Amino acid sequence: MDAVVVFESMWGNTAAIARAIAAGLGGDAVALTTDAATPAVIEASRLVVAGAPVHALNLPTEATRESASAKRQGEHGLAADVTHPPMREWLEGLPRGPRKYAAYETRIRGPLGHGAARAIARHFLDLGYTELEEPRGFTVALTTRSSDPAALLLPGQEEEARRWGAHLRAVLDRVAAAPSAGA
Ligand SMILES: Cc1cc2nc3c(=O)[nH]c(=O)nc-3n(C[C@H](O)[C@H](O)[C@H](O)COP(=O)(O)O)c2cc1C
User: Fold this and answer.
1) How many Å lie between the centroid of ligand 1 and the Cα of residue 46?
2) Residue 7: CB within 6 Å of ligand 1?
3) Rounded Cα gap, residues 78 and 72, in angstroms
4) Which of 20, 122, 148, 183 is deepest in the core (most CB within 10 A)?
5) What is the pTM of this model?
6) Which atom of ligand 1 approaches the CA of 11 most closely?
7) Taking the mean position of all CA atoms in its chain, how far away is CA 77?
8) Residue pLDDT, tens place only, 123-182
9) Distance between terminal CA atoms of the chain?
10) What share of the chain in percent tops pLDDT 70?
11) Quick check: CB of 107 below 6 Å from ligand 1?
């Protein structure tokens, strides 16, 4: 596959956005958990998109994941999924570029809603990747009564993500067609 979307997600919101981005990218793009996105998968990709929820203004840590594990979402108590490695750990094991990247985050609306996507971007840049597009945020509600996965996403966010995925594909194709197409 030439494009892969990798995600960390407690209650399925960042995962649903990843699937929507992959659908927008089209072709054989897929959304993968951090354990499924092995170095071999990354090495075969031209574009790597990575996303995580904002926890305490940054990428989730062991402490914030523990705090999430203690929480239940909605009336039926959906538990947080902490079975996959944290995005931080996945980024540490990432093969070096050159390769294109894009980063996104899910966050609540307001001044506390930033930090994860830029942290992801810094890791990619340190590893010699090139930014395809600016980091992007998708918005969730603080709470929901529903216990369905991805129920925190505000209306229209998955559609936005699909559009962003299609936009990323268009930019990727344009870069590949340019005479000086490099990494
Ligand atoms: C421990 C913890 C800390 C959080 N801190 C922030 C924060 O600083 N800013 C923010 O916008 N959202 C914060 N959130 C809300 C998350 O961004 C939200 O739960 C996440 O986007 C849901 O996506 P997921 O289901 O993929 O995990 C926090 C959530 C948890 C569990």
Assistant:
1) 29
2) no
3) 5
4) 20
5) 0.96
6) 25
7) 24
8) 999 999 999 999 999 999 999 999 999 999 999 999 999 999 999 999 999 988 987 655
9) 17
10) 96
11) yes
Rounded distance between C-alpha atoms, residue 122 and residue 130, angstroms: 11
Token representation of residue 68: 């999430």
CA 11 from centroid of its chain's CA atoms: 14
**Residue 124 host element (H or E):** helix 116-126
Instruction: Give the pair of three-digit tokens for residue 99.
Output: 């390769």
The full set of domains in the chain, from first to last, is: 3-177 (3.40.50.360)
165 lines ligand 1 (CB under 6 A): no
Local structure of 14: helix, strand or coil: helix
Q: Which atom of ligand 1 is nearest to the CA of 16?
A: 26
Check pocket membership of 119 for ligand 1, CB cut-off 6 A: no
Would you call 114 exposed, middle or buried from its count of C-beta atoms within 10 A (0-12, 13-18, 19+)?
Answer: middle
Q: Poorest-confidence range of 65-69, 114-118, 152-156, 168-172? A: 114-118
- Lowest average pLDDT, out of 25-39, 41-55, 169-183, goes to 169-183
Ligand 1 atom nearest the C-alpha of 140 is 21
Paired strand residues for 177: none
